[in-house]
């Protein structure tokens, strides 16, 4: 059904066209802009006042004339066609198929802006996800329904880490599950925003090589795509995830890269609209805009499906206090921080021990979920590695030969912790038992009387056999 059509534009400012405000036009409503030759360009209502409406075009405004153009308001928000045929498909940032197989066969559509979720309907996340990566499983555990971003920097292996998580992530069901290892697999929704073609190709090749491509939905908005497409892409991806999770009862893992490119596009659009900038030129609503994406993760009562989010963002100049990681840290339930110094020393994955955390970890580990000693081992590793940082700083001032025997043992622990616990091959998939055993092997370097965060019964059960083996 055609909507109301208006002839003539008040003015054109880059990709934004401004026309007289019409009645019954809503924010985020779709619009079609026609040039003098009848060419049609889709856009979205991005601003309104009492006298005018601003429509941002998905693409360029080249060739449009203020006098000869016309705008048709379509009377509906932007929608994504959803159905069982989503899996294994590749779409652009606007949700249009780009893999050559045409539209999916379905009459169902969903608003890409999502629907508000009643907080009372949310189910608290408690299910342990085994990623096979010791630095995450052992110390920064990922929980089903959690949003746990990766804070990285240019040149760090965040893409490799995300691809490894996609390949290996499993929901461990201690009471018995679907697979022989009591685990349940994920379907994956992957969204790339403003990335180069080689990055997108890396993920697609990795998905195909590892055999998971048939259970992945891909949304690609590459670096040469319009800014507004980058803003729409994660919303399309999360809409697909909501359909798979809450309509099809699947466990969905959403990987979004790079959130910094998304925020840069948001700043660009805000500048075009003449809005008053906030910190570092970003709009004042950056926090609420990011929250509108991150908060679409979770578990909802009445559905056995779930959405777990792993957004990736590259921190400008490795600055964790930059507005993008700073605000993301407030919204999400922790973060995985990649460390450039560890990376330069050849440690993969270079997960920083102290800035990284998972706020939901405490509710997804322990007896019946992972292992009885998990909480104690994790706490002791954090405390010991914190002491390592202090001892290394001291050694840089007075020299290692002036350190006490206890401090030297902490240095030895730090080296062993980084080499056998943190460091692992890109294809190595460790179960949680192996991860905790390696944690005990690293803790064997610390004087026994300083193991204050682990219970004596666990020392006797797990540490003493390691010490006996080392004699």
Q: What would you note in describing this structure?
A:
- By secondary structure, the protein is α+β, with helices and mostly antiparallel strands.
- It has three domains: 73 residues, Elongation Factor Tu (Ef-tu), domain 3 (Beta Barrel), CATH 2.40.30.20; 284 residues, Rossmann fold (3-Layer(aba) Sandwich); 97 residues, no CATH class.
- It is 33% helix and 23% strand.
- The chain contains twelve helices and 23 strands.
- The strands form four sheets. Strands 9, 11, 14, 17, 18, 19, 20, 21, 22 and 23 form a ten-stranded mixed β-sheet that branches. It has a seven-stranded antiparallel β-sheet with strand order 1-7-4-5-6-3-2, with no helix packed on it. Strands 13-12-15-16 form a four-stranded antiparallel β-sheet, with no helix packed on it.
List keywords for this structure.
471 residues; alpha+beta; Elongation Factor Tu (Ef-tu), domain 3; Rossmann fold; ten-stranded mixed sheet; 23 strands; 33% helix; elongated
């Amino acid at each position: 059904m055609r909507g109301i059509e208006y002839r003539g534009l008040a003015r054109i400012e880059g990709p934004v066209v401004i026309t007289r405000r019409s009645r019954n036009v809503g924010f985020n409503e779709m619009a079609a802009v026609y040039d003098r030759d009848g060419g049609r360009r889709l856009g979205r209502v991005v601003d309104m006042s009492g006298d005018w409406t601003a429509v941002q075009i998905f693409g360029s405004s080249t060739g449009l004339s203020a006098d000869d153009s016309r705008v048709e308001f379509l009377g509906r928000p932007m929608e994504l066609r959803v159905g069982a045929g989503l899996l294994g498909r590749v779409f652009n940032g606007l949700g249009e198929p780009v893999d050559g197989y045409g539209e999916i066969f379905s009459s169902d559509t969903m608003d890409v802006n999502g629907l508000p979720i009643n907080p009372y309907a949310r189910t608290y996340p408690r299910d342990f996800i085994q990623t096979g990566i010791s630095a995450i499983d052992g110390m920064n555990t990922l929980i089903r329904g959690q949003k746990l971003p990766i804070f990285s920097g240019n040149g760090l292996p965040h893409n490799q880490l995300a691809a490894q998580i996609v390949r290996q992530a499993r929901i461990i069901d201690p009471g018995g599950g679907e697979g022989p290892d009591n685990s349940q697999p994920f379907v994956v929704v992957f969204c790339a925003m403003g990335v180069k073609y080689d990055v997108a190709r890396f993920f697609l090749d990795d998905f195909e090589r590892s055999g998971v491509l048939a259970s992945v939905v891909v949304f690609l908005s590459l670096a040469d795509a319009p800014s507004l497409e980058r803003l729409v892409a994660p919303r399309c991806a999360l809409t697909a995830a909501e359909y798979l999770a809450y309509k099809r009862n699947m466990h969905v893992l959403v990987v979004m890269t790079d959130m910094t490119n998304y925020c840069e596009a948001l700043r660009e659009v805000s500048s075009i609209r003449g809005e008053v900038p906030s910190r570092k030129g970003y709009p004042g609503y950056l926090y609420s805009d990011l929250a509108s994406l991150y908060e679409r993760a979770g578990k909802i009562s009445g559905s056995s499906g779930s959405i777990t989010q792993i957004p990736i963002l590259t921190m400008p100049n490795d600055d964790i206090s930059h507005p993008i990681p700073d605000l993301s840290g407030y919204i999400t339930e922790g973060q995985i921080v990649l460390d450039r110094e560890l990376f330069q020393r050849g440690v993969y994955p270079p997960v920083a021990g102290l800035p990284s955390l998972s706020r939901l970890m405490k509710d997804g580990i322990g007896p019946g979920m992972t292992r009885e000693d998990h909480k104690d081992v994790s706490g002791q590793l954090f405390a010991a590695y914190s002491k390592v940082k202090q001892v290394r700083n001291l050694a840089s001032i007075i020299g290692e030969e002036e350190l006490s025997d206890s401090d030297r043992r902490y240095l030895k622990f730090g080296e062993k912790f980084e080499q056998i616990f943190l460091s692992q091959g890109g294809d190595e998939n460790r179960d949680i038992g192996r991860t905790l055993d390696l944690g005990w092997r690293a803790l064997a370097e610390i004087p026994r009387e300083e193991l204050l965060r682990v219970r004596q019964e666990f020392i006797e059960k797990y540490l003493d056999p390691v010490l006996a083996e080392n004699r």
